[in-house]
Task: structure prediction
Amino acid sequence: MKLVTLIALALVIRASYATLGFDSISTLSTSTFQCLGNNGYSSFIARVASTNGVDNVGVQNIKNAISAGLTDVDAYIAPCPASCVSASNQVQNAINAIQTAGITVGTIWLDIVANPDWSSDISTNRQFINDMITTAQGPMCFSDFEHF
Result:
């Protein structure tokens, strides 16, 4: 019985920390973020870098989300492992874009998903991801079972 009570308590505590949020790669105005905030959304994550380099739409969306009052704003990088700049430069370019825009985010995440540019050599991929994490000075990866 104590175990059931403990599990139920843990679920209640976990649920109390949940926030309603979303991610988008489309341009969103400050007024759109205000509307979403008025309807219970407080969390947003924007892509700030991908195979095309820095995503200025994502950087602007972060600015708009913060201006609209969203309280939990993060960024993510969709890595380009083959034909782009180095892993370290991808992270540094994203960080520079965020800093240049004068904004602060909670976390910069790596979006590790299937990509035809990943090497068939697992060690090469692992080193690429480790180089990104080292540059960012901390782990920040997300994926799912299907892509990892």
User: Anything to note?
Assistant: The domain at 21-142 is CATH 3.20.20.80 (TIM Barrel).
